[in-house]
């Protein structure tokens, strides 16, 4: 079993999907040691409680620097023997403290076909740019904003009259299939 920590900032739907796949045996290769959140009101916390996953709420504003913030997280990860970090809607750039410790062992999922539409509101960006396709990308994490090496992508069509909500729903469905598949194949 490979020990994995999952990081999230918001609703935690990808976290919940991963946990469901762990519980049904699809992701029998990993053990989720904890959920790390950077917001005390992240709904991911409620989802983690459903699965009895330990939760670390680490608030960046409680620290004098990014290094100190990440050192606190790193202390939890080391204590738990975490071998891989999986970002699932974690809305901060990873700094050198965590990158150095988990180089090549940190994954992220992003709701666009990278390298297009990095950062926040990628779905809105795709609609505004008039794209006819969108999708999701799993990539390794580096110091940039969604710039790490691409591992795998899945796409969907953007229909005429597509709304942000309808496209987001399509992309979530893709993510729920894509991320567990990549996690299973990469984390061994």
Automatic annotation (TrEMBL):
<dbReference type="InterPro" id="IPR036477">
    <property type="entry name" value="Formyl_transf_N_sf"/>
</dbReference>
<feature type="site" description="Raises pKa of active site His">
    <location>
        <position position="146"/>
    </location>
</feature>
<keyword id="KW-0808">Transferase</keyword>
<feature type="domain" description="Formyl transferase N-terminal">
    <location>
        <begin position="3"/>
        <end position="183"/>
    </location>
</feature>
<comment type="similarity">
    <text>Belongs to the GART family.</text>
</comment>
<comment type="pathway">
    <text>Purine metabolism; IMP biosynthesis via de novo pathway; N(2)-formyl-N(1)-(5-phospho-D-ribosyl)glycinamide from N(1)-(5-phospho-D-ribosyl)glycinamide (10-formyl THF route): step 1/1.</text>
</comment>
<protein>
    <recommendedName>
        <fullName>Phosphoribosylglycinamide formyltransferase</fullName>
        <ecNumber>2.1.2.2</ecNumber>
    </recommendedName>
</protein>
<dbReference type="GO" id="GO:0004644">
    <property type="term" value="F:phosphoribosylglycinamide formyltransferase activity"/>
</dbReference>
<dbReference type="GO" id="GO:0006189">
    <property type="term" value="P:'de novo' IMP biosynthetic process"/>
</dbReference>
<feature type="binding site">
    <location>
        <begin position="91"/>
        <end position="94"/>
    </location>
    <ligand>
        <name>(6R)-10-formyltetrahydrofolate</name>
    </ligand>
</feature>
<feature type="active site" description="Proton donor">
    <location>
        <position position="110"/>
    </location>
</feature>
<dbReference type="Pfam" id="PF00551">
    <property type="entry name" value="Formyl_trans_N"/>
</dbReference>
<feature type="binding site">
    <location>
        <position position="108"/>
    </location>
    <ligand>
        <name>(6R)-10-formyltetrahydrofolate</name>
    </ligand>
</feature>
<dbReference type="InterPro" id="IPR002376">
    <property type="entry name" value="Formyl_transf_N"/>
</dbReference>
<feature type="binding site">
    <location>
        <position position="66"/>
    </location>
    <ligand>
        <name>(6R)-10-formyltetrahydrofolate</name>
    </ligand>
</feature>
<feature type="binding site">
    <location>
        <begin position="12"/>
        <end position="14"/>
    </location>
    <ligand>
        <name>N(1)-(5-phospho-beta-D-ribosyl)glycinamide</name>
    </ligand>
</feature>
<dbReference type="GO" id="GO:0005829">
    <property type="term" value="C:cytosol"/>
</dbReference>
<dbReference type="InterPro" id="IPR004607">
    <property type="entry name" value="GART"/>
</dbReference>
<comment type="function">
    <text>Catalyzes the transfer of a formyl group from 10-formyltetrahydrofolate to 5-phospho-ribosyl-glycinamide (GAR), producing 5-phospho-ribosyl-N-formylglycinamide (FGAR) and tetrahydrofolate.</text>
</comment>
<keyword id="KW-0658">Purine biosynthesis</keyword>
């Amino acid at each position: 079993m490979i020990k994995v920590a999952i990081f999230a900032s918001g609703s935690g739907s990808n976290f919940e999907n991963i946990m469901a796949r762990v519980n049904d045996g699809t992701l029998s290769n990993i053990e989720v040691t904890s959920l790390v959140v950077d917001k005390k009101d992240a709904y991911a916390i409620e989802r983690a409680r459903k699965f009895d996953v330990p939760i670390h709420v680490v608030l960046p504003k409680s620290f004098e620097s990014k290094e100190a913030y990440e050192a606190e997280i790193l202390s939890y990860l080391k204590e738990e023997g975490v071998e891989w970090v999986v970002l699932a809607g974690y809305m901060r750039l990873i700094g050198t403290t965590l990158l150095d410790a988990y180089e090549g062992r940190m994954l992220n999922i992003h709701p666009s076909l990278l390298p297009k539409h990095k950062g926040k509101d990628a779905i809105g960006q795709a609609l505004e740019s008039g794209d006819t396709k969108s999708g999701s990308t799993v990539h390794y994490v580096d110091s940039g904003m969604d710039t790490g090496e691409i591992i795998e992508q899945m796409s969907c069509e953007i229909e005429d009259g597509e709304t942000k909500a309808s496209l987001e729903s399509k992309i979530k469905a893709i993510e729920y299939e894509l991320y567990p598949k990549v996690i299973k194949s990469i984390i061994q």
